[in-house]
TrEMBL record:
This is Thiamine diphosphokinase. Its EC number is 2.7.6.2. SMART domains: TPK_B1_binding. SUPFAM superfamilies: Thiamin pyrophosphokinase, catalytic domain, Thiamin pyrophosphokinase, substrate-binding domain. Keywords: ATP-binding, Kinase, Nucleotide-binding, Transferase. GO terms for biological process: thiamine diphosphate biosynthetic process; thiamine metabolic process. CDD domains: TPK. GO terms for molecular function: ATP binding; kinase activity; thiamine binding; thiamine diphosphokinase activity. PANTHER family: THIAMINE PYROPHOSPHOKINASE. The lineage of its organism: Bacteria, Pseudomonadati, Balneolota, Balneolia, Balneolales. It is an enzyme of class 2 (transferase). Residues 127-199 form the Thiamin pyrophosphokinase thiamin-binding domain.
């Protein structure tokens, strides 16, 4: 197992959040301007990758890789490199906030790359987002806020256990029905779905 942290150029994570995820990981990739955020945090990436249009050029990483392709965004380039490094568990910071179009693009990248890793998650100071497999089960602190959203317009055959507002073989559809602001009331939380792409957002608990 190799865990990799990717830092993008969206809203910067707090020092506390960055330290939490850095401690989970073996390798640190900065996606272009994410290297500027790393410098402000006082940390050095193992590698910087991207078209380098946002990178200030003042960080001293062990390796800098210029990938000018406009067909891929910098997160995609970082994830391709994570595949090359044989990463299995991927944690992404700085992929949300600032421009909404870039946030939506980064969420869509989860669908593209999830089959290539055992686990891939996007986190910020509010919570953590992942694309669920057809059958999911995990334990959470009772009272944790949890939301479900269909990534590709509609997800069907959704059934949940352990949530305050259960779903029983039902659908979620953008603009029609979503599963926001649910709450964990029992463990393990179990979520299954038969078709579509289902995102789960889990709010960080306050200590």
């Amino acid at each position: 197992m190799k865990s990799i942290l990717i830092l993008c150029n969206g809203s910067p994570p707090s020092e506390e959040l960055f330290s939490k995820y850095r401690a989970k990981t073996d390798y640190f990739i900065a996606a272009d301007g994410g290297a500027n955020i790393a410098q402000k945090l006082g940390v050095t990436p193992d590698v910087i990758i991207g078209d380098l249009d946002s990178y200030s050029g003042t960080d001293q990483a062990s390796e800098i890789i210029f990938r000018p392709s406009q067909e891929l965004n910098d997160l995609e380039k970082a994830l391709q490199y994570a595949q090359k490094e044989r990463g299995t568990h991927i944690y992404i910071l700085g992929a949300t906030g600032h421009r909404l179009d870039q946030t939506l693009k980064n969420l869509s990248v989860l669908k593209q790359f999830s089959p290539h890793f055992e686990q891939i998650r996007i986190a910020d100071d509010f919570g953590e987002t992942r694309l669920l497999p057809p059958s999911f089960s995990d334990d959470f602190t009772i009272g944790t806020q949890l939301s479900l959203f269909p990534l590709s317009g509609k997800a069907t055959g959704i059934t949940t256990y352990g949530l305050k507002y259960p779903i029983d073989n039902e659908f979620l559809k953008n603009g029609v029905r979503d599963g926001s602001s649910n709450e964990v009331i029992a463990n393990p939380v179990q979520i299954t779905h038969k078709a579509g792409d289902l995102l789960m957002f889990v709010k960080h608990n306050s200590d």
